[in-house]
Amino acid sequence: MPGTTNGSTSTKTMGVLTVGGLVAVTAYTVALGSNGWLWFIWVVLGLLTLGMVATSNS
């Protein structure tokens, strides 16, 4: 694709994984009850994604 770089592609991929993870963790919580480890892992994934976005914009 013109205008895209590997950095922006991996940032978009991380964004999709983060949103998909949120949907999965939310569905799990609704169906089976809350699991603190799943939410913790999702928060870490979200922070990694934010870090990638911040560094790719620099």
Automatic annotation (TrEMBL):
TM segment ranges: 12-31, 37-55
Taxonomic superkingdom: Bacteria
Organism taxonomic ancestry: Bacteria, Bacillati, Actinomycetota, Actinomycetes, Kitasatosporales
Name of the protein in question: Integral membrane protein
Keywords from the UniProt entry: Membrane, Transmembrane, Transmembrane helix
Annotated source species: Streptomyces cellulosae
